[in-house]
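> @MW can you paste both from yesterday?
MW: sure, first one:
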Amino acid sequence: MLAAAFAFSSARQAKRQADAVLGDVEPVFSAYQLPDDGKNYRHRVAIEIVNHNRLPLYVQSIRLEYPDWVLIHRGAEEVRDLVAALYDVVIEKKREHVFDVPFRLAGRFSSDMPAVSTSVFNVRFLDQNQQGGFVLGFIVHYRMHGSKRVRVAFASTGFDVLD
């Protein structure tokens, strides 16, 4: 009985390794807080999508989940981009972005590095007296190339106020 369990576990691990070599693994979705960059925004968070699969993936929408006393907008180097980002959040009160044409993240061959997309967001507190840690979550709707099935991925990170 013990030998059968070991054989099953070994076979499952061998399949996972073969899938990884062939590029048949799921993408990875993660979020993390960035250190202070010494520029305008001390508080920043990044959302990262890593596609280890040989097939491209298509992101259809991204929704952010965070408390009402926090303002999160996409990071921008250009003034015009910053104005557009603030407009989206403050005026439109958007927490979800639906792509008109799904955002494509390329696939990879077995010897290539995975395709990575990192989006940086700035964090502001609406009331400077009410600053505190919170959890930032995000929900991604995506599909793999050649499939019509929409998949959903969830990720989150704890956010701490920098001193």
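MW: second:
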Amino acid sequence: MSTFPIKFDEKALENTRSRVPENTFPFQQGNDGDQYRFATTIANYCQKRYSLNRLPKDGLTFFIFIPVRHFRKVENIGKKLLRLKSNNQYELSNKLVISLGDSLRKCQIIEVDPQETDIWNKMAELLNEIEDICDEELCHSIVDYLNSEITVQYTGEDDNKFEQVLDFTTSQKIFTKQELEDFTNEFHDTETKLPTGNIGIWLHPNKYELLTNAEDRITNAFAVKLSAILGKSNIFREPQDIHGRIDLYIHPSALERDIGPCVMEFKVLREGDGPQKNNERLHEGVLQALDYGKDKHAKTLYLMAYDARKKLGKIDAIKQLADKHEVIYLHFEMYNSVPGERKKIIAETKKNNKKACG
């Protein structure tokens, strides 16, 4: 009996390959990535249970991330619980969940008496005791079931400490181009537009100075929040490819067919860097988006520019370059104060009124 070599349709094979997630988490292991992986795990777990109507109606849960170096110090505290991530029935209200690692596979549980007069303070005391044992502040997520919120506290050096608030009632969905851009605007309004934003990226607002790691913080916070909507297996932060590390890659399974996959490059414009350096940074961003887009066969490319200069506004030369290469250039203006934003709005209104009057 004759046999024939099997021939694959290369186009179909590539299409199938492009729809298989590269991993199940947006962030690489190690360093600060572990904290972001942990935050994503908690958000995903709460979302899943919420969709199944298996979350408490009220009460709190403190989820505490324990790095590997501290496992032995805490592994005998409380009651042992394995594979919490796959347990949708476990009663969570008024418990402190000590997670050994970022995956909820191995946990130690401390229960707080529901008759306690101030449960939040009691849990905060227990958290402080565990931090004393580990001799460092620990990343943790506080789930408030009554208000449907997860408050994540990231820790580390001063520049790495910040807070992020997530809504676990958001259901996973597939984004259109408009929905993706609406998300970017909403993120800017709550997180980066003013110094009062949740992620706190200003060092000295009155001097127009941002934190050294402002760009990384914006990208990481953006990835965590987006993964809570599109699913953690669809968002990849800094995956390695031929041309280096991509700031953000969105898998095609999370997007409408005509826009996925998608690549995003994040850049921050600083007052202290001067016009030439800022222009070069955005020019580089356009080229990076092009290179990474080719690597990933991306249908949509974004340059995400966060502008913290005194004189705000899109850079015409960059807009022309981006348009030429079909890179979508989104420019987000950051104000060092609420009055600063107000002044810009008033100035633009006057300008528009003059135009209208001829």
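> thanks! The two ends are 86 Å apart (CA to CA).
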